[in-house]
Specification:
- This protein has helices at residues 48-54, 68-79, 139-145, 166-172, 176-197, 210-217; strands spanning 36-37, 81-85, 90-93, 104-110, 119-124, 129-135, 157-163, 200-202, 225-234.
- By secondary structure, the chain is α+β, with helices and mostly antiparallel strands.
- The chain is 27% helix and 22% strand.
- The chain has one domain: NADH Oxidase (3-Layer(aba) Sandwich).
- The longest helix has 22 residues, at 176-197.
Amino acid sequence: MKSRDVLKSNWRAITNTDREKGIEKPEVEKTCEGVILLPKFDLGHKSFFQTIKERKSIRRFSNEALSLKELSFLLWTSYGVRKYVETRKVVFRTVPSAGATHPFDVYVMVFNVKGLDAGIYRYSGLKHGLCKVKLGDFRKSIVDATLGQKFVRESAVVFVLVAVPYRTEWKYKQESYKTIAIDAGHVCQNIYLASTSIDCGTCAIAAYDQEKMDGLIGVDGNEEFVVYFAPIGKLT
């Protein structure tokens, strides 16, 4: 198969999937103890038309901190859970996904959020909270991992999409690689629109050192790996 062929449809070839074999469906997200629950919010009242009109990539941020309510809003609108059918391990989020497989974990690199220690967290949509991964100031590390894109360190947070391919492979085998890429776009567009609606900015990034990013986030680079991320901050 040529590299570009992954973009073509090959649904007729999907046979003998793990789903068809009766293999247990993977969990919709990792378990987590000691979740930091995020607050309720009443934000994002800018009109849909105005939000679409203003949406653009932003690479300059002010040094103003995000509030916990703003972070809560951004995470829920980008990858929150609307409904969970526990008996079927089916989750319905605020973004579409092929076969409702939702193959990502969203990690949050916190640089400047009121009431939250700097560090790396994983978002739990089921609990609408944050799972602490490691604390520290990782501004220098993220610039290094993004091949010198210094504007990233000026953001308040960075949302990092980590693919867990088997969630989709279980159902769609080789076609999952196309749909996972498409699903990443769904999530990132919501990040753009949510950010714009509360006068923040973002810029999606796909240029980075794979090994360094995976190491920074703390994933194995095989069963889980970084595919896309977006720094978010207040407008200047």
